[in-house]
Amino acid sequence: MTQSIGIAITGVSGRMGQMLAREVIAHPEMHLAGGIERSGHDWIGQDLGEAMGGTATGVIVTDNAAEGFANAKAVIDFTAPVATIAFAAAAAEAGIVHVIGTTGMTADEIAQLKAPASRAVIVRAGNMSLGVNLLTLLTRKVAAALDEDFDIEIIESHHNQKVDAPSGTALMLGEAAAEGRGVALAEVSDSGRDGITGARKRGDIGFSAIRGGDIVGEHDVMFAGAGERIVLRHIASDRSLFARGALKAALWGQGRDAGEYDMLDVLGLSD
Ligand SMILES: NC(=O)C1=CN([C@@H]2O[C@H](COP(=O)(O)OP(=O)(O)OC[C@H]3O[C@@H](n4cnc5c(N)ncnc54)[C@H](OP(=O)(O)O)[C@@H]3O)[C@@H](O)[C@H]2O)C=CC1
Ligand SMILES: O=C(O)C1=N[C@H](C(=O)O)C[C@H](O)C1
Description:
This protein has 271 residues and is of the alpha/beta class.
């Protein structure tokens, strides 16, 4: 019989935090081992299951990462950049797998994951779904096949509570398109057009962000040429999709060498 893996969840009261907790409770090879929230949060000291409006789980929500990670083999973290950097240090200290879904991290913040990743497994992806990760491969392929006569535009739509733009997924798709073209995304990225912007620069990769209602997450990669357009599209209609990907990553990371990995590694899709 396989041993059940203890999972800690940070930002456990959040949209993704609660979804993750429900998926862990329902998973046959996992159990909840910790729930972490920010100091001063209402849920601190409460049973996690009861705080979510359900039955008791025996896991008491804490604001102390070391305490929340003590009985876990992996922590799943969908919070905010500053919090994620601190959780990475605490996860490495505890010697557990850190699955990071947090988006909006700067290049400098991402570089700060190097030290903890030298001691423990980190799996990080702006999107944990199979569909989006497959779409990055298709995007790279189409971008490599077409020249700059085709303008690449990435359009993303999310709910009205999302705080970062472009989305982590849009940036993954932009990176894939840039890689296909053999250019650095930072050199060709064009986001936040407003006012007299001038004509589109040949070779740029454009980003547009829509925010509204309860949209879970939708992404189009458009290749716009003369007289024709190719559009690659992914639509997420249920957040459990991301949670299930994160659980898969937590299991995959067990017993791996320390290092930084992504969902292509987890899904066996990396080159
Ligand atoms: N990779 C993927 O597949 C996906 C990634 N995401 C990303 O996950 C992140 C969270 O999204 P979502 O669940 O919708 O957001 P929510 O705002 O609903 O949840 C975030 C949670 O993290 C907590 N948190 C924020 N800052 C800190 C901190 N400094 N210390 C401790 N806890 C903190 C929040 O607490 P408080 O409310 O007190 O601020 C909240 O409980 C975003 O970056 C989002 O883009 C989302 C879906 C899929
Ligand atoms: O904040 C969200 O909700 C989502 N964030 C991720 C992103 O930034 O791409 C993934 C998904 O699209 C939902």
